[in-house]
Structure prediction request, 167 residues.
Amino acid sequence: MIRCPSCGSPNYAGEDACEACGADLRSVDVPQDAIDFHGRLLGEHLDALGIEQPPTVVAGTSARAAISRMKDDGLECLLVVDGDRLRGIVTYQDAILKLKGRALEGMVIDALMTPDPVVLRHDDTTAIALHKMAVGGFRHIPIVEAGRLVGLVQARNLFGHLLEVIG
Prediction:
């Protein structure tokens, strides 16, 4: 049963008009979101994720050393830097695809990286991060401020945070 907002009379759910007063009931029983997803989830800034320092490697590092570090530390990606400036990103998928049939000897990480990757700012929202990940097919997006690397958003952390908020 639903109550008429005009006269308070009880009516069956799905009725278009109140039987007592004839008031329009079509919008009274429309389901509403239990949570304001835009405000609580999609409008949240990336700072809410507790962004940590990302794993980096200096441009010019040997590809063998960088890949060994990824393997040993269980890293899904490394950000290639020159000082505090982001030069590129290397994921384990990049390594697999770009190394097929090639020798590691003498190769530097720059040859495997994706240069000038898509980036976010720390005050971007989770909605922007989700959009960029979905459109680009990314699982890792660096956070840059004034050209300087400040963090990394990873899909697993972002989705974990979203589940925590709605759970």
